[in-house]
Request: fold
Amino acid sequence: QEELVESGGGLVQAGGSLKLSCAASVSFFSANTMAWYRQTPGKQRELVASISSGGTIVYGDFAKGRFAISRDNSKKTVSLQMNRLNAEDAGVYYCKSQGWPHDYWGQGTQVTVSS
Reply:
């Protein structure tokens, strides 16, 4: 089965940092664009960052300058370093593999930002 498993979520103070990881047991990982999405209260699911097989990176506006996405094809992992977190960043973060014929999603990891 194709599976994505996120880890690294948890409680962080406002202004702090957190690093999320996604272990991807998927076919043709190195050829797939990988991405992080998030679901925050009152908002639609939105792109946090994506990284293509060639290393092209796209960030959501809120993530620019604060978050960094990276991938390790040998380990089939994708990471998201999040810095200067604020209350608006709290929510569930999901890993996605863009493949063929299907995209695959992880179950998500919760990020909580304390006051």
